[in-house]
Amino acid sequence: MNMFTRNDKPFDTNTASTTPARDKTETSVAPIAETKRTPPLAPPTNEIATPQTRVVSVISKALKITGQLESTEDIQVDGEVDGDVRGISVKIGSNAKVKGTVYGDTVELAGTIDGKIEAKNVVLTSTAHMSGDVVHQDIKIESGAYIDGHCRPEFGKAANKNAHAAAKPAAIAATGSVRDKAGSVAEFGTRA
Amino acid sequence: MPALSRVALVPVPLGNDGTEFPASHLGKALTIKGSLETTGIVHIYGNVHGQITADRLVIGAGGYVEGDIVANDVRIGGRFTGRIYARHVTLDGSAEITGRIFHHTVTVAKGARIDGRMPWRPLNFFEKFEHLREAQ
Questions:
Q1: B interface test, pick of A25, A54, A65 with most B CB neighbours within 10 Å
Q2: Residue A4's pLDDT is what?
Q3: In Å, how far are A28, A45, A68, B14 from A39, measured between CA atoms?
Q4: Is B5 inside any structural domain?
């Protein structure tokens, strides 16, 4: 009994003194982890997105991608892409290189494309270097732009309609999977 | 491509992007099927299926990557399936990992889910590994 009471008292005081301390450390650790967690993950989106006007994805100078890019938002390419690019508004920066087809609603080219452009609105700036065909509805070519290929105002017409129709479900399917994954992540986040 | 081993071994605090190249940012709606290679920083909030080579890689919450990662510094807040070869790995509380993480130092936040092994490796392993990768 004595043992218990003796043990209980110091033990209680110990646990009372230690557990709050632990709680303190935990609570002090947790906010740090949260504050650490949120700023690097959230603000970079703002930091990066704000300088270039409302550009959602940026493939920067030093990045080389081999494969397909698909987005239901805007894409800015300043690096190198060896493959197709699909987006809504696609900007190919002045030092960028794309080998493949660029699909979009609006495609602005200031760099190099070795392949094809299929877009409603196409803008070739003075530094553009286009090797391949341009399928468009509306085109603007600034003086100094280089084009080696055909400009065909056939975007949205019979032959291309099929190609574009085939392209669109793929993009939609891709975003569907993104949403599913994002949804499941959100679930895990709340559970954790 | 310059060897990653030449890059400073000290983990640079994330979010401090005072580097020569602006970071690449792959937004939520972006899906890439293929490999990514850079000597700079990549932030991934979308989907990537393929191999990624970078100096520093951040998979943000909501991001999903399937494939192998070779990098100096990796931070994950999203989902990942595959193998990571990195000197310094940080897993946030929202991270969900399936696969192996070859690391020299690792930080795991409370709440992270890891299904797989996290083998420690000496620093020269990564150099050797990079040489192998570069030779391929």
A1: A65
A2: 56
A3: 17, 10, 30, 9
A4: no
